[in-house]
Model the fold of this input.
Amino acid sequence: MNDKQYKRVELVKRKLKVAKINLGKAGEHFVAAKLLLNGFNIFQGAIDDGIDLVARKRKKFYFFQVKTCQDVDYDSGKFMAKINLDTFLKFPKTQSFLVLVLHFLGANASIDSMGDPNRYEQEFIVLPSAKLDEILNKKNGNAVVYLFYSPLMQGDNQWIVKLKYSGTEYILDDFLFDSFWQVEI
Done:
């Protein structure tokens, strides 16, 4: 990439910042759509008490906290999410989930198309409350988690994602990706 192209990329990156409230609401709608496509009925609360979505299927209720993160530099593979762990204490572990929505420039983006919001992609990481407890080993309060993904696909289009919390890194299992099926297990 020459200097002119590099300057153009940097200028476009500055213009691409999505307002935090818009990004969060969009992530909730993405997750609601995924759940609807999997046969769930979706409810959104009028007041934000930490749970963004409640889903029902076969007379059973599920509770979701959704965190949407965009790539810190739009091409770095770094994401950050702040999680309120107290939220998960209010609900049964087998029925509560954290869904991380990773919002990033897709592989089809080029210098000429970087300003096009349709070039963005989303990956979903579904973490059951029990798995979150296992990873964070913390019962309450706030946690800030850092996610790193390898922008290169590995083998069968699988991502390598590391979650970092309190100085410890964890490699997330592949089954956590787009794994809304585990909600019904």
